[in-house]
Design a protein that fits this description.
This protein is α+β, with helices and mostly antiparallel strands and 101 residues long. Helices cover 37% and strands 22% of the residues. The longest helix has 15 residues, at 72-86.
Amino acid sequence: MPALFLFQNSMENDSTYQTKNLFVASYILASRKIQFLGTKVLDSKTKLFVFCSPEIARELETDYFSGGTVAAKNLFAEYNSLKDLLFQRDPNRGKAYERFE
């Protein structure tokens, strides 16, 4: 595993899971197990992806780093959607994101 991923990349409060890692967020969203709530601006260069159900999200993050699998079609679709969302100038546009099924 590259050293790039050997850091604590997630944050959470009591009711949400937040990560700045695009790959982890894509995997979590592609799993279709929890709802994506939107993005949160941490500072001028960093946005966090925010999910509900922090316990499940932590399990999915562990699955990701352990080589877990999700449908490739879902993974690439979510990666592209989140990447587009990440580079939008208006941080509130993510609030209307409705991919959860």
